[in-house]
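The protein record passed on for reference:
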Amino acid sequence: MAAPSNKPKKNRKAPGLDETATAIQTTSRGARESAGGKPMHFNVDPEFFQEFKTFAAMNNLSMKDLLINSFTEYKRKHS
């Protein structure tokens, strides 16, 4: 088995404030949200999943958009 190579690291200087300030984006959403959002992990019955996915596709919606729309409507009716 070959040993990992220990290449010497280049001497890099940390970027200055003027170099990093232009890279900072000021938005109402955090970087993770703007790059796809925070994942939600939960399990559903396979039949429900298939029905949900089919409904979303038939209505030209992503599953994410259908979930958001459903929750928005639920909040509207129960608030």
